[in-house]
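Our preliminary data section would be incomplete without showing what the modeling component actually yields. Below, a chain of 472 amino acids is followed by its predicted structure, encoded as tokens that our downstream tools consume directly.
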Amino acid sequence: MKLLNSMEHSLNAIRGQFSPDQFSALLNMYESEIAENYLVWFHERFHYLQSIFTPYGHLKWGCFRSYTADVLQAWFGISEKFSCKKKVPIASYLDDENVNALKIVATIHLQDIVQQFTNISEYAYLSKDIFQITQLDQDSVVPVISLNGNEYNLNGIDILESYAKFEEALLGYYFEEKPLDETINPDILPERYYSALDYFLSNVGSERLHEFPIVCELSLAITKLPKYNDMDAFKKSHPSWRFISMVNCLKENKDIASPDIFSNEAFFNYANRVLADCNFETFDDVWKSAEDYANQADLSMAKEMIDAIEYKKNNPWMLSFPMRNPQDFFSKEFNRFQPIFTITYDTVYYNLDNISSSELIFENHFQALALQICGRMSKRCIYPDMLQCGFSYFGLKNCPYQINGHCDGHIDGNSILAPLELDDEDNIIGGCTFEVVLNIMGTSIREIDVYNVNEKTSLEAIRTAIKKHDMG
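Predicted structure:
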């Protein structure tokens, strides 16, 4: 029985996934299994709360939206400026004889590299292209700690996952009286689920355990994503470096009072004291850039982010200790903040009370196209020489034409698409919305040549192609 329980816990550790780019969750289970595995569901929902209630999450979302827009704009520029056929992915342009088109391909690839670099805040993986540009030493990008007697690279994902696992364990403790070490069991969990907690306990002590989630939250209270060209600034913006700095601060300054989590004033006093002692920006400063960005976007999602900021400011403890007060935890105000969509094996749950469904559909189509332009094939791709719409790319299951078998979500210039249908007021009531999106952007699937969407390019390949045609 002990072995069986261990296997179940191991499965639970890999039964969910959260995407900060789409604010969506994936549960590797059937709808009927969610109630039994509510801790897994809450773990993924908490990742959404980490995104919507922290400047870090807002910055990541904003960065991905900018990446999508920049890639699409540059991609359209190739055909508009140089009368080239639209091609996907950009690697397929490398044999093109127009050197100026190749230079725009380089611009798109650099945008993709920038987007990859934003992920360094979570994983210290440096691709060959990133290394060539930054010359960073991969071993020095993140702090090294001692874990289980070995050296361990503490990545940003360790902060996010240890934080979420701790909150999952608290929920199990409050609702099932399950001991914390039963949920957070190093014998059966990957290191990222307990590494940050282990470091905190080793340096600050178990008597101050209630400060751990607050330190994790403050690790995500940044004003900008890490940039490689200034390592001092990089460390002030990188979650794991911030976490180490604040833990050391608590270790060396035992006079910092433990906060009363139900007092707004005490929470802010504690947070600002820790931030100030580490020479980090205060809470008032860190939210300003997120608010400025959200106010610029004419989107229902941006409005939701503004509302989340206001809720978090008025209820500052609701990310560090959301379930301590059942009245707040089960309130309508708190439970509006759910992943925009949650995918299971057999259905998709949408949270569209405050989000426009049309906006969500269009955003997913835009994102899917930009990712495929850069050679990022979906793991759900069946035919790599065809484009996937947003429904197919992200695994959504509510396109009526996929449901009735008319389309499997993979299309090219020869595909028979459902025609556009408009009502008397010219609102779209039917038709392939992916083709509608392409039409809005001034093109059509008929004008796009699709090659192997899993083919990526590199700076070296682009340089070689440009030199070849310059010399020719």
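The first strand starts at residue 16 and ends at 19. The mean pLDDT is 88. Preliminary results of this kind motivate Aim 1 of the renewal.
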